[in-house]
Amino acid sequence: MRDERIARDARAAQYVALDVPGTFSVRLPLGIWTARDGEFSVLFQEWGDRTRRLAHLPIGEPLSCIGPLGNQFSAPSEGQRATIVAGGLGVAAFWLLARDLKAARAHTTIVLGARSKLSIVGRDELAALGFDIDICTDDGSEGFHGSVVDRVRSRPPSDVLYGCGPPGMLRALCRYANEAGVECQISMEENFGCSLGTCWGCVVPVRRGCPQGTGYPKAPREIRDYDFARVCADGTVFRASDVLWLH
Ligand SMILES: Cc1cc2nc3c(=O)[nH]c(=O)nc-3n(C[C@H](O)[C@H](O)[C@H](O)COP(=O)(O)OP(=O)(O)OC[C@H]3O[C@@H](n4cnc5c(N)ncnc54)[C@H](O)[C@@H]3O)c2cc1C
Ligand code: FES
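Above: the input record for the complex with FE2/S2 (inorganic) cluster. Below: its predicted structure, written as tokens.
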């Protein structure tokens, strides 16, 4: 997609909210994948109405797009070893981060997982940045046989982990990082309404005292010792040690 400002300003883990023509729905949030030369790209699957219509839009069709939205991954300190942990389309959060880590000459490993070798996405673009990609597949059809979190456990420890992927994967990654005492930042997804921080449709529970908590007031007889954060505006990036997985 062509947009000079979004391509220039996009930071790792930020997203755009697209008004897909022909749908009567809220804007579609999609992570910004690559961004350069006045253009940016997104990586998506045809999940339902909005993504299906987006996939079939004629080339050159004008599209209303808000962005870049959300916070961003923080860079590792000098000399720290970083591991990017991407599950499926969660890889969309990582091209910009990988580019920045490459430019900073940070010691970086990329662990990329998918159900099978046929569903691996993003490998070529990351390899083109000069990274060796450690592939994992659930069915063992390529690379390590198992999940990306199993793979991270089996590798030498890193100083910082960056994760994006399905909720089960992120939950397992946070548990590993918190138990091992490793710094970990995750980019989360929720069902978004406004994408702008106003509808409160995307909140997740976070540790009380977490800087991204909103101080959401308790109901009169509610007993709650945690806070809420809006994934769309306070995130999408959170520290593993701040996110609570209540279910
Ligand atoms: C910040 C953010 C960034 C995102 N980035 C991307 C991205 O880079 N690429 C991408 O493909 N998607 C991404 N998504 C997810 C995407 O916005 C949703 O999948 C969206 O609901 C698709 O809209 P739709 O109208 O096509 O399908 P919907 O009608 O909303 O969904 C159709 C069906 O698919 C199911 N479904 C939707 N999303 C998922 C999912 N992620 N996993 C499993 N089942 C699902 C729904 O439950 C429903 O049954 C992102 C979401 C957020 C919040
Ligand atoms: S989607 Fe409306 S507040 Fe997050």
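Notes for the reader.
Residues 15, 28-31, 42-45, 47-51, 89, 92, 189-190, 192, 236 surround flavin-adenine dinucleotide (ligand 1) (CB under 6 Å).
The helical segments are 4-9, 49-55, 95-103, 123-128, 148-154, 167-180.
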